[in-house]
Amino acid sequence: MLRQKTYTDRTLGPGSIEDVYVTFVKDPHNFFVQLESSADTLEKVSNQLQEYYKSKDGGVLTSWDLQAPCVALYSNTSWYGCQITGHPVENVLEVQFVDFGNTDFVSVENVRCLPPNLLSEPKLSFHCELQGMAPLQNFWSPEHIAQFEDLVLDKSVTTVLKSYNASTNTYMVQLMGENDENLNHQFCLLAELEMSCSETGGGNKLGSSRSVQASGDKDLQVTIRAGSFPKPTCGIAKSLGVEADGHVATSPRPLQHVRLNVGEKVEFTVMFVKSPVEF
């Protein structure tokens, strides 16, 4: 029976600033990046794997220990390094591709032992969590995940590593886009969530809340907090304490209440539905 060691993890220190490529997003608290500086290593390892299994049929796994390093055929086209994360049904394994972060179900006949010379190569992906926010409820909605994917997936960004959780091997990060855009704040505004968005050392906190209550023949009352709008126009920016470019002013104005009269027709965006009588 072939037995293998585990992959090694490359660690980065808090405060490190790295140019990365976002390879896989499960949600804003669970996504993976590669260092752009690892591109040559990734290409070298990939070429070695394709050549190795092009000429060799051996190395078939005879045991399927969880977290065991191995190689799997992705989309029946190319071999990639992975580790076993599950064995849901007979002759099928769940694997995670360690250089990208995504998982897949593959037939056991398409899983091989990792070549011994590649065991010393560390994983090229890093597990990350977006800093300073939480979902409206206890889970991320498909809409918010899609918004985050549109913002960062398959794109080159700069990441500032704020902290590291050794128990989960996860980095808390702040992402920066072109022209030093703070993508954490941009996503916060884009998703229009009730979030606490903060930047370590910056001292500014961005709250976003909008609630609507309606009952019987009572007037409709809307509560608006600074930061509710992704890109406020100059007209409403002053009243909300938000700059026209979407940044929160140093001293946001207090909550303001907009009262709508019974029978008045207005246009607004439905942001959250708890029930047909509360949204």
Topology:
Layout: E1 17-27, E2 30-35, H1 39-55, E3 69-74, E4 78-89, E5 92-97, E6 103-107, E7 111-113, E8 125-130, H2 142-152, E9 156-165, E10 170-176, H3 183-191, E11 196-198, E12 205-207, E13 210-213, E14 220-224, H4 234-240, E15 256-260
Parallel strand pairs: 8-10
Antiparallel strand pairs: 1-2, 1-9, 2-8, 3-4, 3-7, 4-5, 5-6, 9-10, 11-12, 13-14, 14-15
Helix pairs in contact: 2-3
Short description:
The protein is of the alpha+beta class.
Q: How helix-rich are the residues, as a percent range?
A: 10-25%
**Fraction of residues in β-strands:** 25-35%
- Number of strand segments: 15
Q: Supply Rg.
A: 24 Å
How would you state the average pLDDT, rounded? 75
What structural class is derived from the secondary structure elements? alpha+beta
User: How large is the count of helical segments?
Assistant: 4
Outline: elongated
The strand order across the widest sheet is: 1-2-8-10-9
Order of helices and strands: EEHEEEEEEHEEHEEEEHE
Q: What is the terminal separation in angstroms?
A: 59 Å
Largest sheet: number of strands, sense, barrel closure: 5 strands, mixed, barrel
Uncertain segments are: 194-256
Structural overview:
- By secondary structure, this protein is an alpha+beta fold.
- The chain has helices at residues 39-55, 142-152, 183-191, 234-240; strands spanning 17-27, 30-35, 69-74, 78-89, 92-97, 103-107, 111-113, 125-130, 156-165, 170-176, 196-198, 205-207, 210-213, 220-224, 256-260.
- α2 packs antiparallel against α3.
- The chain is elongated and about 75 Å long.
- The N and C termini lie far apart (59 Å).
